[in-house]
Amino acid sequence: MISIPHKTKQFLVLLIKILIIGGAFYFIYNQLANNDQLDWQKFIILFKKNQSVSGILFILSLSVLNRYFEILKWQNLAQYIRKISVSESTQQVLAALTAGLFTPNGVGEYAGKALFFKKSEAKKIVFLNLICNGIQMVLTVIFGLFGLLYFNSLFNVITPRTVVLLFGILLAVIALLFSIKKITIKGYSIEKLIHKINEIPKSIHQKNTLLGTCRYLVFSHQYYFLFLAFDVHLPYLTLIATIASVYFLASSLPTFQFLDFAVKGSVAIYFFGILGVNEWIVVFISTLMWFLNVVIPVIIGSYYVLNFKSEKIA
């Protein structure tokens, strides 16, 4: 193997840090400054009309809670390998979020967390991160399906026959997956995956599910309260069902973290358009959600990326 001198290695690590942070700030600025759909004048007028220090603090506290539950989730799962503090979990989650900003569906986040552990534990960390994100996706699908059914019952976007057909296809896919669970591809199979999941103590899975549910409820209700702040007053169940539907469909699409608000925004415009909500309000709320739950954590995560010690990857 080619041996890289220590100073060269340090320079490469520093260069990677600068590229990650520089790229993150460039994309954040570009999306906020050059988005023609954002009408800042309307936002400022509405903000001055409804400005409330307590309201702003409440919305910000939901962002903190959203990320805090994710930090607790990772701390809970990481203990399967070794116990880490909330502070360590915070560092790993936020630094990994920053590192995964430019990768499809945040794939870079998996490698980001693995760097904080021994090389021999890398595969286990990737697997645990898969479970961490997996439970969030499962909850998104469950709540999203109920949301879609409720939304469809009100507005008949698709016919009952189509709903039955879609559920039939879903059940068929699940049945097919379990029927071929013993088939191995490059040493991996569904049966082996289930076995590895079952190796993790039930208490960890239960806590992971509870924290994931809490995070989902916080995130969806932050969306809800932002609509109220923008003078959108619709029945609670209608608004929550629409939010669940949008989040489910948008999360199902492959995308990059820095384009997350654009994808969710485009899906949201369609659904909330049916409810008669002004398009610019939908775009602004989607942008605010992205800013509060991705941009701010990435800015904090940039600090952890800069202070990351290359010795940890040894």
What would your notes on this structure say?
The protein has twelve helices and no strands. The protein is mainly α. Helix 3 packs antiparallel against helix 9 (202-229), helix 4 runs antiparallel to helix 5 and helix 6 (122-155) packs across helix 10 (236-251). The longest helix has 34 residues, at 122-155. The model is unreliable at 310-314 (pLDDT under 50).
Number of strands: 0
Computed CA radius of gyration, to the nearest angstrom: 21 Å
Total helical elements: 12
The end-to-end distance, rounded to whole angstroms, is: 16 Å
Number of structural units classed as domains: 1
Oligomer: single chain
SSE sequence, one letter per element? HHHHHHHHHHHH
Mean pLDDT, all residues: 78
The profile of the biggest β sheet is: none
Approximate helicity band: over 70%
Structural class: mainly alpha
Provide a short characterization of the protein structure.
Helix 11 (260-274) packs antiparallel against helix 12.
Keywords:
disordered C terminus; 314 residues; mainly alpha
Can you lay out the helices and strands and say which pair or pack?
Blueprint: H1 6-33, H2 40-50, H3 53-78, H4 86-99, H5 108-114, H6 122-155, H7 160-179, H8 190-199, H9 202-229, H10 236-251, H11 260-274, H12 279-306
